[in-house]
Structures are given as structure tokens and as C-alpha cells.
């Protein structure tokens, strides 16, 4: 009760402070700041929940490039999160909010689970090593997404995903097999399901050809969340705080490496995240699973991302799509101009800072063709997201 009162007081104080600052803002305040301020104010609004409110917090986890952001966009019915065929498009946890009638679903789109070595290789922020594990602790349901079109990874759950599940075995989880449309031999889905569930769904054995005998449940053995670190990751300089490897014993980590699946899934879905009908089935399941509880956000909120974050991520999506190997991962962006012109168009100017001269030539392209194409495609996407005319300019500069 005390913590709830403190939270209410803090929310009210922040809201009053924000509104006072926004009211004091003059017409000369840059649109960039005013839009961000409005978004912040909206997030601080008390949820306008009905009397019989229901809610469900869903965290979507999986290996990099499993299709988490695509699925989140489809569930929301609007493209709010960047999507790319390259790994690590999502750089930090982002929230999508789906509110219908008396029910609110909060979707936590997390970065692909990774390791310190891979994070260093792709110039990733250290937060990417922690965000998914922090998100799962506050979830009501975990959606484990697996790309069945990848023949190298589809028959075994990612090791980092298994660690997430082992540390949070009390949180209900479902298995979602994604990209089934790309699988020519659909009978393989039965074998994949058997392997990833260890032949058990919702506590019952499933009769599927090739089903493996359930392994001893790791979750059945209590483990301390304060176990002394035994992981090799500490050698890589990863932060000790929030690292899940430090919370499992060496014995438990070793046991996880021999596992292919998880026997505690309550349900299994097979879908294509780009198929609206498939996604609707999963969406109905989430709404049916919502429990009586307070909403976290006002019904007008679609995401916790600011407009500038959406813009940066949209451009990053294009850079990942068109630039090879490590080039897009080593680049940074800076918003130079964000203003509304006299004709009502939102003018945005972005500066790309490039690490090497060779990278600069790749970004510009022959005769400036590539940077022009990236600009045009990003501009079109931003107009659909912001529902207004956008004039985007992207330039590149060699980082000194």
C-alpha cells in the first residue's frame, strides 16, 4: 500500500511539473521538444481504465532475427518498431500498447538475446545483455519466438532463451513457431514442436513422431538468485549486475547446454507473423488470457518511444537493409533539425557519422543513389507512422 501511494504521488508530481513546463513553453519552442514533451505528458496521464479493467504484460523473447519486432507490429496493427533481416535491429526494450474495450495488452519487444562476445562484435550497448532478462521478470506471459525457416537453429531453443526460462519458471510461457510459410515440408513442424517442448505441453505428453522423453526439469531444483558467479562472461567485462549467468550455478548452466527444449510451455502456436489471420488468432489468445487488473497506460498511448526514437530506428532499419556486414552497426545518428515548416510539413534533418572513408563511399553509393534511396524509403515510412507530411534529409560525415 505504501509503495502504491508513493507511486501515485510521484506520478502526480511528475505530471504537474511536466504540464507546468509545457504551459510555460512559447510558440518559439522547437517542434522537436514540444512533440517529445507531449509524448512524455501522455505517458504520465492516469490510465483511463473502465471499472472492469483487465490487463496482461507480454514479453516477446527469442534469438536475434526471430521476427519479434515484426510480430509486435502486426499485433499492434501499425509499424512502430524497426524491422530488418540483419540481427540486432532492436537496440533496447520498447513497449507497444494494445487497448481494446476493457482490456489492455502491454507488449515488451526486446532485443535478441545475445552474449558479451557477440555484443562487442556488433558494437551493441551493454543494456542489450540485460534488457530481456529484466523484462521477463515483470511479465505475466512469455512468448518464445522461434524462426522455423532457419534449419540450423529451429530444432533447439537458443541457450540464452533457455536461461531466461530457467530463471523465471514461475512465469507462464508459450511457444510460437514463426515463419511457417517459408517451410516447404510442413510435417517438419511436428518434429520441431516435439524437440522444442521435449514432448510436453501444458503438463501433458504429446504424441508426436520423434518426440523426445522429457528431461529432468531444471526448474524443479531451487536455485539461489545470489549464487556466486561461475560464468565465462565475466572475463568479457560484462556488468555483474543483471547478468543472468551469475544467478545460475555452474551445474545448472551445464545442464542447460544439454537441453534442446523446455517442457513447461502451456501452449504452442504455429504462424507467419506477416499473415494477418494467423496473428489475429494469437491476439485473441492474449486478450482471452488477460486478468482483472489495473492498466499501466492511458488508452491513447501506442508506445513508450518518443517520435525522435521512432525516426532514428526507422533510419537504422534502412541502413541495416542496404549496407553490408558491420558498416551499419558502427554508425551513429544525430538529429540536426526537427521543425514544422510554414507549409505544415515536418522537416527533419539527420546527420550520419561514419567511422571509415570506405564506409562513407558505401553509404553515399554511386552518384549518391544509395543515400537518396534510404532517405526516400525512410521518409515514406515516417509519413505513415506520424500520419502527416514529412520532408527528410540525411547527410553523412566522417567521424574524426
TrEMBL record:
- What are the boundaries of the region Disordered? 217-248
GO biological processes: ribosomal small subunit assembly
Its membrane topology, per UniProt? Answer: Peripheral membrane protein
Instruction: Provide the residue span(s) of the region labelled G5.
Output: 271-273
Cite the entry's keywords alphabetically: GTP-binding, Membrane, Mitochondrion, Mitochondrion inner membrane, Nucleotide-binding, Ribosome biogenesis, RNA-binding, rRNA-binding, Transit peptide
For region G1, the annotated ranges are: 62-69
Subcellular compartments: Mitochondrion inner membrane; Mitochondrion matrix
Region G2: list its residue ranges: 88-92
GO function term, MF aspect, one: GTP binding
Residues of the region (G4) are: 178-181
Q: Where is this region: G3?
A: 109-112
Purpose of the protein: Probable GTPase that plays a role in the mitochondrial ribosomal small subunit assembly. Specifically binds the 12S mitochondrial rRNA (12S mt-rRNA) to a 33 nucleotide section delineating the 3' terminal stem-loop region. May act as a chaperone that protects the 12S mt-rRNA on the 28S mitoribosomal subunit during ribosomal small subunit assembly.
* Entry protein name: GTPase Era, mitochondrial
Per the UniProt entry, what species is this protein from, by scientific name?
Labeo rohita (Indian major carp)
